[in-house]
Amino acid sequence: MHHNVDYAAHLDVLGEPSEMLNGAQMQDVTGSRYYQGGLFTPGTVVLQPALFVRSAAQRLRSNRVNIYENSAVRALDRIDGIWHARTDKGVVKAPKVILAVNGHAQSFGHFKRRLVHVYTYGSMTKAMDADAVKRLGGQANWGITPADPLGSTVRRISGTGGDRLIVRNRFTYEPSMSVSDAKLNGIWRTHNESFAARFPQLEGIEMEHRWGGHLCLSMNNVPASGEVEEGLFSACCQNGLGTVQGTLGGMMAAELATDHRSDMLDDMLALDPPKRLPPEPFARLGARAFDVG
After folding, report:
1. Mean pLDDT, residues 152-162 taken together
2. CATH classification of 7-44+117-217, choosing from 3.30.470.20, 3.40.50.300, 3.40.50.1980, 3.30.9.10?
3. Are 219 and 277 in contact (CB under 8 A)?
4. Is the model's pTM score more than 0.85?
5. pLDDT of 276 strictly over 90
């Protein structure tokens, strides 16, 4: 726990139940002796975001809605009042378009020098056999979020795909929106070390999947939203809360594009725009002050 923040008191004010766990109780949950204590919040839910997105997309498919994956838009131009989204294999035309591309709003010429591009990283073990599951102990499904934003998120999942552990830590500032192989290799070493420190009883369990993800932040923690050109609406910059703020941003962009007004939309439109970043090299130096990569 972060000693300067009384999270339990905040939850009590919100009327949310919570329970402080000691080290032994944390071990009962996780199988790890690493944790000295934690805050259990039974009202929260651990969400598998990729499954959520794919399930929602599957429900949307119909004779009116098509979804195209692996179809990068190379150019977006407005011609005679109609937007043309050009891909390698064709063009989609529409009078109104919503940009729900997070940090890549900048790739289409919008919010220049106002978006902070950050990558975060995760590693997932191979499915554990029965002996490894027994050595681990603990509960079959749990998730730990660190009080320190730069700490390690750790999860255990079971069921589809077998029993696995996931470690997520490290973030890097990547204004070019790409990451070098050398940097990735250093991050994977850190994940291995974090895993070994928490689960020494699982020595020899290898990571099977590793990945990184692009987050978009703003200096003043606001979205990059609104009508950025005639008929072009932005639902971008989720500030690290993609499932919640991404969904909300998309809803608000759809309301704006269809001329439906709501109190929530009015609140969003009243927000300041993303704050302009300081010039280089100051932006990079400032990010690296927090960049543990």
Report:
1. 91
2. 3.30.9.10
3. yes
4. no
5. yes
